[in-house]
Specification:
Helix content is about 5%, strand content about 40%. It is mainly beta. Strand 3 (about 20) and strand 4 form a beta hairpin.
Length: about 180
Amino acid sequence: MNIAPTALPEVLLLTPHIFQDARGAFWETWNQRSMQQAGLDRVFVQDNFSLSKKSVVRGIHYQVIQPQGKLVRVTHGAVLDVAVDLRRSSPRFGQYVAVELTGENGQMLWIPEGFGHGFVVLSDVAGFAYKVTDFYSREGERTILWNDPDIAIPWPVDAQAAIVSDKDAKGALLATAEVFA
C-alpha cells in the first residue's frame, strides 16, 4: 500500500497494490499490520456503505461529539471525494482537498477527526464504503452546506442538477457553523 499526504497533510491518499490477471483483480482494502507500520494506527468500530446515483451530493458531514476518523473508498463507480479542514486553530481552516475515487483504482482517502467529509457521484451509480473510528452520534452530527461559497469547492455538478437531502440542503455556513477548536 502506498500512503501519501494530500494538500491537507493530515488527509492521506492510500493506493493499494493491485494484482491483475485474466480472472480480474485483487487488492487489500485494510491490513492492520501494514497500516500500523505506515503510521495509520487506528481502531475502527464500524463499517458503513451507501449506494447513490449520478449527481447525488452527500455532505459535508462531521461530528462534534464523538468525532470520527474515516477511511473511505468506492467499491464500484466513481465519486469526487472531499475533505474540509474544520479546525479553527489550523492554518488550513476552511481549505479542502478533492480526490476522484473509483472502484477500479482502489484508492482510499483517510480523513481524520477534525475534518468534514462529502462526495458527489460522477458515474451512473456508485457504491461507497467507509470505516469509522467512533460510533454515530445524532446529538453530535453537524453539516456544512455543500456549496458554501467561503469554501468554494468546484463541484462538477451545479446546484440545480445536484440531488441533495433536506439535511444537506439546510447545512450551516462555515462562518457560523459549530466546528472544532
